[in-house]
Amino acid sequence: MDRIDIHYKNTGRDIRLSTKDVVAFKKVLLRSIKPEMQKEFISDVTVDFYAHDKRIAYFQIYQAPTNPFVNFNSENLNFGFQLTYGIGMFLDE
User: Fold this and answer.
1) Which residue segment(s) compose the domain that 61 sits in?
2) Could you give the number of structural domains in the chain?
3) Which of 41, 50, 69 has the alpha carbon at shortest distance from 1?
4) Which of 34, 48, 39 is nearest to 2 (CA)?
């Protein structure tokens, strides 16, 4: 993964992370994730992961005050998990 784009649907804001931020976000991604079944919701934030300009995976994030949730989707793997503190803080910055 060499590029990450974040789309905030409620504000219409799009962000492409710098190379430095991609490295930092990768470190945050794997902390404290406990996979579970995906949930149905209307996402507030979408995070797209790219390798060589091809989208390889994405997060759909529901940022509710209680029980915020993430659905992870890729060609070979799909699961959900509770939004972690680290990912939430990174997205709020």
Assistant:
1) 3-92
2) 1
3) 50
4) 48
Which candidate, 31, 32, 25, places its Cα nearest to that of 48? 25
Identify whether the C-beta of residue 71 lies closer than 8 Å to the C-beta of residue 36.
no
CA distances from 12 to 15, 32, 44, 45 (A): 10, 29, 10, 10
Instruction: Give the model's pLDDT for residue 31.
Output: 86
Query: pTM for this one?
Result: 0.92
Q: Strand order in 3-8's β-sheet?
A: 13-16, 3-8, 45-51, 54-62, 69-74, 78-82
pLDDT in tens, 4-47: 999 999 899 999 999 999 999 999 988 889 999 999 999 999 99
